[in-house]
Sequence to fold (90 residues):
Amino acid sequence: MAATNINVRTDSELKMKAQSVFTDLGLDMSTAINVFLNQVVYRQAIPFEIKKPIYKTAKLGGWEGRIIMSADFNEPMEEFKEYFEPEVCE
Fold:
């Protein structure tokens, strides 16, 4: 089987992080990519699920419409100051 080259452009930080994982697994980048390509051929598909990320910060879930803003926003913080201030021992 003749070897061939594949040129791939990727983010340098992503490459460093991936290389670190591969090193921990005892693999180099070429071997890891060949494992991936072999699995693609064997399964006739991407060998893992690809999903669009879900960002939970977009909605408030069950709390939507139940959050009430205090008239004085700083007032509730006054109650917690005692937890943040160190106690003075005499």
